[in-house]
Design goal:
Radius of gyration: 26 Å
Number of strands: 16
Structural class: alpha/beta
Strand content: 15-25%
Distance between the termini: 95 Å
CATH class of the largest domain: Alpha Beta
Number of domains: 3
CATH architecture of the largest domain: 3-Layer(aba) Sandwich
Strand order of the largest sheet: 1-2-10-7-8-9
Largest sheet: 6 strands, mixed
Length: about 475
Amino acid sequence: MSSSDQSAQQMDVADSVLDLIGKTPMVRLRRVGRDLSCDLLAKVETTNPGGSVKDRPAVAMINAAEDAGLLQPGGTIVEPTSGNTGAGLAIVAAQRGYRCIFVMSDKMSEEKVRLLEAYGAEVVVCPTAVPPEDPASYYSTAERLVRETPGAFRPDQYSNPENPAEHERTTGPEIWRQTAGRITHFVAGIGTGGTITGVGRYLKAQDPEVQVIGADPEGSVYSGGSGRPYLVEGVGEDFWPTTYDPAVVDRTVMVSDAESFAAARRVTREEGLLIGGSCGTAVHAALAVGTDLGPDAVVVVLLPDSGRNYLSKIFNEQWMMDFGFARCAGPCAGDVLASKAGAIPDLVLVTPDETARDAWNLMRDLGVSQVVVSVSKDPPLAAKEVSGTLDELSLMDRAFRDAAVLDNRVGDIMSPALPMVGIGEPIPKLVQYLERATAVLVLDGGHPVGLLSRSDVLGFLAVRSPDPS
């Protein structure tokens, strides 16, 4: 080839990694959707450089901040994030020389923390089971860091209009083109609300009949919850972000942690797409929606991120067992719990603000020797809501030394929370726990459902073993 021919050819090379964001593929979920009459398609956002849909608004928010003079050269980006927005912002920061501080809740996977640190970001971890206005919450912590850090800028994905606007500019048009305008239903998880709002606005502008469905974790406010903790990451909220426009969403589907994780594992194993838990939330909702649709319907479900950030959790069999999402082959903790006599409740709860006297009266009336201390008494209880335990032996010892202790708050005198075991844990593992503790708290799908004591296990084993006489 002559030099003139070579110079006439253009190389197909991006100028920077930021130019690789968007234009993500769409794939048909043939195996997972095989029982549906409709067409089930997945918009695969995992191919973005940061591995998630959040790369799109990350660049848009920083571009807008630079244009407005809100972020100066050498400045610091501070943002509360479930990890994915942080990765997108960290990529922009690496390209443009900004420092990053990200605030994450303690339910996020270790992989997400390590990923952000790999990009050079600083990560501050905050507790999950506190309200947004609590000084320790990850929202409040981010606000404090912005005040304390010179040259700091907070993109605030929860209120930044560039978040939904970028999806209206890019993600929505891509979906419309890829389906040749045949899309009838769009399903996506709701986190900040930016994706579903922006995409929904664009699709409805093209065809008002397109149905927009939000997939939401059990406990999140979008589907009627109060914002109580759940285990799936990066989706759902405990408050209403201004980036979410409820008028765009036609309906929401509540999805449990167990349903989310099962769907993520199914898609990974049946379709060869390694997806995360929030993807599973969306897929479960899409399958529920698709059940009632005919062959002319085209359902597009947005897959926001990869499962690579969750290898230590939903793709880890021991983690799934520990939280009660999986069961062993033989006798397990659930069998012991089922064998208990029904006269005594499986789980008795008190709040930290109740008095020790009230807790003792409850123990006496119900015939139990200990109670679980939780910030909420409403079912279903979340593991993160458990703050401690109170037992009659320690309470008696304290009251013997000072009877006035019975009028103290439970939260001031409680003992640490009991060890937690999954409902599917094998009996030998249960015995190991009880060698170090008087009782254990049993989790089913991430929810505490009962207490097991040494006596409970001994009674179960006695019934199962043959009588030598």
